[in-house]
Amino acid sequence: MFSKESFRTIKASYFRIALDLIESYRNDAIMNGLTLDVHKEEKAVELFAENIINAGSHFLEVPMETPFIPSWSRVSSAFPDILDEITAAVDADMAEFQAK
């Protein structure tokens, strides 16, 4: 059974693990001659952690509400070329970062 405390525990666990991973990624970046904007990463973690609490509060208020998370088949029917566009974007990123 979910409670307010359950969502606080999820948030705390996520927050600690995410901050530890940022530190690990920072060290990897340094070892590979790259940079990582730790401040921006930590701000993103804080935002996501806050949204865990917001989503948990909403769930506790309306536990039987159907979440609106469309399936890929629904996304594809609305945007028929989406998978090709995503593939092209990934290919472009790969080409850019492999060239460096």
Percent helix, as a range, is over 70%
Low-confidence stretches: none
Termini separation comes to 50 Å
Beta strands, count: 0
Structural class: mainly alpha
Query: How much of the residues is beta strand, in percent?
Result: under 5%
* Mean of residue pLDDT values: 93
Multimerization state? single chain
- Rg from alpha-carbon coordinates: 19 Å
The number of helices is 4
Question: Could you spell the SSE succession in H and E letters?
Answer: HHHH
Mind describing the biggest β-sheet? none
Q: What is the domain tally?
A: 2
CA-based shape? flat
Give an account of the 3D structure.
This protein has 100 residues and is mainly alpha-helical. 77% of the residues lie in helices and 0% in strands. It has four helices and no strands. Helix 1 (4-31) runs antiparallel to helix 2 (38-61). The termini are far apart. The mean pLDDT is 93.
Features:
single chain, 100 residues, mainly alpha, 2 domains, 4 helices, flat
Topology:
Layout: H1 4-31, H2 38-61, H3 72-78, H4 82-99
Helix pairs in contact: 1-2
In short:
By secondary structure, the chain is an all-alpha fold. It folds into two domains: 1-69, no CATH class; 70-100. Helix content is 77%, strand content 0%.
